[in-house]
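Q: Protein A?
A:
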Amino acid sequence: MDSNQRSVQTFSMKTGASTLTVSENGGRITHFSANEKNILVDAGIQTGSTFWPSPQSLWQWPPPVELDEAPYELVEHSPERICLRSPVESQLGIQVTKVFSPIANGFNVAYVIANVLGDIVSMAPWEISRVSGGLSFYRAATPPEAHSTCDAVFAEGCYWYEYKVDGLTGIPKLFANNSAGWLAYVEGDQLLVKTFPTITPEEVAPGEGEVEIYGHADVNNPYVEIEQQGPFRAIMPGMRLIWAVDWRIFELPEGVSAALGSRDLVEFVESEVLSREALQAI
């Protein structure tokens, strides 16, 4: 190792068969698995799961380095909680804290955006998770938005995006609103389900979507981003916005097909979502 390089710390926790690993760099989720089979992309030009303020027009490209790549401060690491805090992003005047805690079959990921400088800032929370391809799907009351640049197939009340990198060009991106509060991804026998608070179309950040799917159009670097966003809000100086996502991972039960339009697959996902909501209502 070069003497000017330092080792990157990672922090892990387990619940049942599920494992979550977070890097200090960007507070990025680098590993999420059932029985140690990572469902996230862990090599290549874009990896793991990160967090950005929305809309992208706030910062263009690349993302703010303080939030996406810079080392986060470790606030707490215990079997029940990992807490990491970013440096202050001076252009927007915000600081992001990420809190990870175990739940059944996975983990809760809470994002706290604090306005630490003197101006009012308006933004939405945005989680971006990179997976290798496969099949992404979600339920929504309306079709993808008109400014989407890739297509989804409607079947069994859900919209499905099957990633096939051959033939993709430009920036293939799907934008969707009026979701049912879940976004799922399946590849092989692994199923990832992310659940989140729903928002109205009026709460969506300008030019963005409550649910977004991006298929990278490069055969040499194939990956998909499955993304969801929270409400676009004004954050007063000294105040903060808190938004949380539940991550769950499953090995598909025998007899549940991972095919596009699989009724059994949708029923399995929604049985888990409804079970979660019922438990929260107790």
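Q: Protein B?
A:
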Amino acid sequence: MSFKNKIKNYFTMDDEYEYEYIEEDSVPEKITPKQKSQNVVNLQSVQQPAQRVVLCEPRSYNEAQEIADNIVNKRSVVINLQRVEGHQAKRIVDFLSGTVYALNGDIQKLGAETFLCTPESVDVTGSISESYLYDDEI
């Protein structure tokens, strides 16, 4: 085969590549099953497991791993850091921030020493304005 014929065949369609049209009379009728499948489940009968929110009040940095385990198990965690010293509270928040980031979750500050950590499956809407976070009158 010459080079010219190869180029021609490359850019043009031969008869073997043309679409075949099927006449409607030659299409078989829809086949219906005689019995219903036993694997079909009504979606309304399926119940979702209850979502858990875990409340934690750690006393030291050593409890940060337990809090992170809850997040890994797809539970939302509210953390009150009032009983932890300042430097340990910062370490806990840093550790949990890394955990939440690795799981594509979210961490939000709810109050002066209160945080909410949520896994990726939880979507938190709304926000608390910062002027109320430190207001002692509430």
